[in-house]
Give the backbone structure.
Amino acid sequence: MYNMKSFHHTIIALLFFTSGLHAQETGLVKEADLSYLKALTKAVLESSRIYPGQIISKDFGPNNTGGILIRPGGRDCYPSFWIRDYAMSLESEMVSVMEQKHMLRLAAVTQCDQTWVTRNGSMVPLGAIADHIRIDDSQPIYFPGTYDYAEQGNKQYGMTPPYDDQFFFIHMAYFYVKTSADSKILLQDINGMRLIDRLETAFKVPPSRQDNHIVYATQEFRGVDFGFRDAIAITGDLCFSSILKFRAAKELAVLFEMMQNKGKAAMYREIAAKIKKAIPGLFSDQRGMLLASTGKSRQPDVWATALAVYLNVLEGDVQKKTCRFLADAYKNGTLSYHGNIRHILTSDDYNNSTAWELTSVDKNTYQNGAYWGTPTGWVCFAIAKADFPSAQKLAKEYIDDLQKNDYRKGKNYGAPYECFYPNDYSQNPVYLTTVSCPYAVFKSAIKFHGP
């Protein structure tokens, strides 16, 4: 049986977890700006909620799932429940325990229980977690690009579902247990399988190297490495997916410790350690940036690099080199625009026609060169380790742009946008992770963001 005293000790340790910012490095944003960002995040999150029975699009029925769902943003964007965006917003600490439990159960109930092949020839493996879930009939859509269950899955988005959702599912469960103290849910039967077993099954879905547990994809049988670039074809060993797997392994280790299963806890800690050891050698370039992969679109990846610093995957002299380079990239203008971040530095574009090597979208639009707010907090966190004033300046630029274009001013305003570019291009107003992810970083240097 689970030991409650041990549980409380574990939770206390988590609450005081820090990934390395020193005391003098707190305060990336001023108190007034943090209060503004908190209020904006809260407003966007409320706009993103879909209440039971609520209709948000004439093309879909009401929310029939029996509880509140959180979609990727407000207004008319994304009329479904996306696992990824929701899981990435949990550290804002603005989602109630009741809401978390409902969405966790929905993700578990719709987990694939039998491997099958779609009409378009893609495979949905046993244990796969949906990319998004329809609100009207709870049908799981495992691939990006459609809301049609029968027509999902084609080569544009890979031959297997995105790799990240499995790891975000584990993060959902971990965060729920951490905030609710409801460890009993791990033993709860969900369609004939305990939740903890579903988590382990999900963990094993993305193809991984047998020696170091790094996630990989082949050209012939590719999966999207991370849904925030599902329009990019990336193959070989995959950096971002492996970083998410590193965190998921550490989270599973903590969950098994709570269940007094020391053997499983040790196993997952060993997996995390092997991934952490492998990442710098596999992906680092001579400047300290992490490459997105070792195959197609093998390019320096700002998002993966900053997240690796944030989650303490990179340490010591390697981390110092990386953070210094990001700080220099910010100062020379290749990293950001109005506080928002590109996937690729402008100096690292594949050629004059595209930022990424293989993509289905035009250069300087969407995931192929537009600027995003989602990773701004991770980037500020990394830069702060080398040049704290520059990190503060970047954060201030981000806040200033939100204030200038705040959607609450009226229908002609849309910030936080999903992404934008200086030529008046923008996409998806009132976008949640654009504010929830940076807010989670800015609100406190020692607040929880991983085991």
User: Anything to note?
Assistant: The mean pLDDT is 93.
